[in-house]
Amino acid sequence: MLTPEQLARLRAMIDERHEALESEIHRDAARSRDEPYSLLAGEVTDVGDSASADLIADLGNAELSRDLEELRAGGGTGKDRRRQLRVVP
Hints:
It is a single chain. By secondary structure, the protein is an all-alpha fold. The chain has one domain. It contains 4 helices and no strands. Helix 1 packs antiparallel against helix 3 (47-73). It is rod-shaped.
């Protein structure tokens, strides 16, 4: 069982991670918008350029998907997350 102080610290850590995830998601989404496939592949594409651009785009999408999944698994918004953490007497 957690003490009230431990619970408060855990809540703060979860809130910090949630805020970090939101920031990463916004940054990754903005980067995806700012770096279209044509910019990644270059003006004159060959098979190697195309494969590299595909890999970069796929990695960006995977990172964004991972962060979104972690955010969803974390219980939603601040009040929802804090409601899940209660002191058990």
